[in-house]
Amino acid sequence: MKEYRNDFPILGRKIYEKYPLVYLDNAATTQKPRQVVEAMTEEYYNVNANVHRGVHFLSQQATDLMESSRETVRRFLNAGSTSEIIFTRGTTESINLVAQSFGEKFMREGDEVIISEMEHHSNIVSWQLLQARLGISLRVIPITDDGQLRLDVLEKLFTGRTRLVSVAHVSNVLGTVNPVAEVIRISHAHDVPVLVDGAQSTPHFAVDVREMDCDFFAFSGHKVYGPTGVGVLYGKERWLEQMPPYMGGGEMIKTVSFERTTFNDLPYKFEAGTPDYVATTGLARALDYVSAIGMDRIAAHERDLTQYAMQRLQTVEGMKIFGPADNRDAVVSFQVGDIHHLDMGTLLDRLGIAIRTGHHCAEPLMRRLGVEGTCRASFALYNTREEVDALVEGIERVRKMF
Ligand code: PMP
User: What residue's CA is closest to ligand 1, atom 14?
Assistant: First the structure.
């Protein structure tokens, strides 16, 4: 995959004028290939006009671009229709949209939502806001000590009041690839729909929402080589049709009067205001980019790199790796002896190695693991075994300092 590194100018940077950048913070955000940045620049320079409302040439061209980007996303997820593809600002907004809108329509005081112990804050707090508003309650699927969902317990969490299950496809801390198809099968057997948080799966392997049969699927553009500020909510039409708008404004209406307003068709009902139509182009080019390389090739490369990293890291004295031994993806959280994660992150940075440290927006999971934070290395298609070696050598240097 090394040839693709040239598409990412930032990877040529030297850090502190000294070390070539080793960027291992891809779970937080990936770097952007030229193809994405150039398509966005081109749109600003040559096409820019507000979408959907204009009769003039540029507005129509910008609208066509945005709608063809929606088709690109549909294909990427293998959704049945572009009506089911809603552009949002990212995973967080997608989950909040479902919480507020689905909650408003389908939940009452005393109803329940099932999440898991390994969720990102966006898949916890969004439901807690609904809890405060409607009086719903949260039930939590526990995890095993090696970071896998306890599906045996999931069965027991369903009651007559369960309205939704919302789980991560891949954990941003443990790298666990959750058996979402099984979660969906169990939930559907209880007549309960499922939201899958795909923030950490879409960058790493092919996703097929129809095969998975999820009811909602959320992901962020910036984690899959696209621009910041744009993401997607996929939802089955039968749910989206019944759900009320999330925000009010332009684009999402058919007619407005002071007495009565009617709402636009899907997906526009959920896209109030001027969308980031340049970012949607960037996102589509990013999805084209990874599709041209092949999601299966990317997955194979990253799985290999993750296994290599696990093996190499385990040679470090005092190394503790969190999460499962296999069936994991592109994310390795670890701790070395009693070296504080912040010290480790700061000192590795001085060697030009970027990792993430802290609670990774998953404080309940940190509590379950019995730590305040971890060090996390996460991989993308452009990372190499040499960079894993640099990480391990860097950790050894830090360890010797302590
Ligand atoms: N869910 C998971 C599993 C994540 O890793 C992240 C980002 N760290 C999010 C949700 C939130 O994504 P965003 O900040 O792009 O909305």
Answer: 92
Residues 276 and 311 in one domain: no
Q: Are residues 261 and 357 in the same domain?
A: no
Give the CATH number, domain containing residue 394: 3.90.1150.10
Q: What is the 3-state secondary structure (H, E, C) of 158-203?
A: CCCCEEEEEEECECCCCCEECCHHHHHHHHHHCCCCEEEECCCCCC
**Which residue minimizes the CA distance to atom 12 of ligand 1?**
91
CA of 302 to the centre of ligand 1 (A): 19
Other residues' Cβ atoms within 10 Å of the Cβ of residue 65 = 18
What is the value of pTM for the model shown? 0.98
Atom 6 of ligand 1: nearest residue by CA position = 199
| Residue 160 CA, ligand 1 centroid: distance in Å | 30
- In angstroms, what is the span from residue 360 Cα to ligand 1's centroid? 9
Q: Are residues 259 and 287 in the same domain?
A: yes
**What are the residues whose beta carbons fall under 8 Å from the beta carbon of 159, sequence distance 6 or more?**
112
Nearest to 309 by CA among 54, 104, 12, 24: 24
- pLDDT tens by residue, 37-77: 999 999 999 999 999 988 999 999 999 999 999 999 999 99
Question: How distant, in Å, are the alpha carbons of 18, 100, 186 from that of 351?
Answer: 8, 44, 47
Looking from the CA of residue 222, the nearest atom of ligand 1 is 15
**Side chain identity, residue 4:** Y
Q: Which domain holds residue 80?
A: 37-291
Q: Which residues are catalytic?
A: 361
Choice from 119, 121, 122, 224 to test ligand 1 binding pocket (greatest atom count within 8 A of CB): 122
Here the tokens at position 66 are 């945005």
Give a yes or no: residue 376 inside a domain. yes
Helix (H, G, I), strand (E, B) or coil at 116: strand
Q: State the Cα–Cα distance between residues 377 and 395, nearest whole angstrom.
A: 12
Q: Residue 54 has what pLDDT?
A: 86
